Each structure stands twice: as structure tokens, then as C-alpha cells.
Amino acid sequence: MLPPGASAGPGRPSPPAAPGERLRGRDMAGGTGTAPQRLPPGEQDQEAEPEGGSRRWGAQHAGARELAELYSPGKRLQEWISVILCFSLICFNFYNLLFYLRLEHTPSIIVGIFAGVITADFLSGLFHWGADTWGSVELPIVGKAFIRPFREHHIDPTAITRHDFIETNGDNCFMTLVPLANMAYKFVSFSPEALYETCPWECYIFALIIFITMTNQIHKWSHTYFGLPRWVIFLQDWHIILPRKHHRIHHVSPHETYFCITTGWLNYPLEKIGFWRCLENIIQGLTGEKPRADDMKWAQKIK
Length: 303
Ligand SMILES: [Zn+2]
Ligand SMILES: [Zn+2]
What we know:
Elements: E1 23-24, E2 37-38, H1 62-69, H2 73-100, H3 106-133, H4 142-155, H5 159-162, H6 165-175, H7 177-189, H8 192-222, H9 230-237, H10 244-248, H11 267-272, H12 275-287, H13 293-299
Antiparallel strand pairs: 1-2
The chain binds zinc ion (2 copies).
Residues 128, 132, 150, 154, 250, 255 line the site of one zinc ion.
């Protein structure tokens, strides 16, 4: 049973049960006598072999195994360096930002933080949509480094819950390095007067950076059904971060909606106005490329 506050979004039905979805008793997690727990499609342990002998999801899916093997030591090193640099710069910038905060800035800082979170949610959707819908794992450099994890995630959604902190957050830390370095440069080179002036704007940028950095951790929590800290469940239940039930809508094949994975606040309005479909039609019209062709190819890979 999912938490009461984890809504699927206003007016939006819960995702349909996919073939193979089943009820799972608490007994399997060690307890007895509690209500059965329903795990979403792709979140199960995959003990049962589906008809035909091929697995539709999970770590044993042939495509998932091949994609997991493409995670290289070089990629791992890039993630370690990104995480260390990113968190060092976050600490440096946070300390400096606190130094220039003034009480009279309070209203604009609140607006700035809220706008930063909304912008991060939109960018998470745009980036996720781009990687899911276009390009291929065969593309030089970006294919293996940045598109591969998205393909793996659709055919083995629980793999993310087995990734450690570095693998989960490395790519997002890498993406925020340039804006973080730019902010640090301003703190060491601008005059104090200029920094007081721009403080609310820097708060917007900082909130945006923090939420982009945290996006994949938040996404990992949205796939974690056991052992989450209480405060994370609280944030999910109040829809301050991406709730589990909400994100399940994206994981229904063919993965064509609900791309925003930071807070998920923009998913319903963007779906309502047909935002992603409209973008896809424009790009398909211009390039002739079919949306999600590479994603489908990996999903169908059974040998
Ligand atoms: Zn996706
Ligand atoms: Zn997901």
C-alpha cells in the first residue's frame, strides 16, 4: 500500500498494471499479517520467468545486462571527481551566500528559491525527455556516458536503487560544476556592494543548482520501496520532492510523459497542454527522426 499523500497528480489516473505486476506480501520483507504491498511494474524482483523465457524488465533482461557492462572505470573516475568538486563548491558558495544575506531581501529570496525549484523541475524534465526520446547509446562519448543510464533505467528500474552515492549523483554533479564555479568566481572577484545587490538572484541560481544536483538522488528515492528514512517519506508524501506513485506514471511503456523528476510539480500542467508531444512533433517534422526509437530497440533486446 502506498502512502496516502503520494498522489498520482490531479485528475490523472494511476498507471495501469503492467503484465507481470503482482501483489507482494509483507511476509517477504520479514513481517507477517500486514496488508499486501503492491509493487509497480518493473520494481519487482523478477523471480518469475515470463512466458517465452525472455524477461521484460529487471537486471536479467539481456539489454539491461549489456548496458550495465558499459559502465567503465573511466566513467567511474569522472563521477568521483565531479562529486568531490561539486560538493566543495557548494560548501564554498553557501558560506559566501550566507555572508551577504540581508533581512530586507527575505521576500525576494523566498520567491527566488521557489523559482529555482520550479526551474530545476522543468530542466530535469527537458533533459530526461531529450535523453529518453532522442539519440542513441551508439553516439560517440555522450551515448555511453549519458544516454546509457536512461536506457538501462527503463528496462531495469530497480538498478538505480542498487547504485551507490557516486554512481547515482555523479552525472548531476558534473552538470552543475560550471555554474558553481562561475558563482565562486563572482564571490572572489566582485565588490561587496555588487554582491549585496545580486544576492536574491544568486539565491535563485543556488536553489536551482542544489535541486539539479539532488535530482537523481530524489529520483532514486522515488524507486525505493523499503528502508527509506522517515524525513524522505515525509517530503514525498507532501509532494515537496518526487513521490513514488507519481513517478510510476512515467514508467508505463512507452515512457512518453511525466518526465520531470525533481519535484514533479510541472508534470500535470505540461501533460495537460501536450508540451512533450508538441516538441516531438516539431523535431520529427524537422529531422524525420522517430521519437524513442533507440529506447524501443533496447527494450526489445532479449538476446
Ligand atoms: Zn525515462
Ligand atoms: Zn524512474
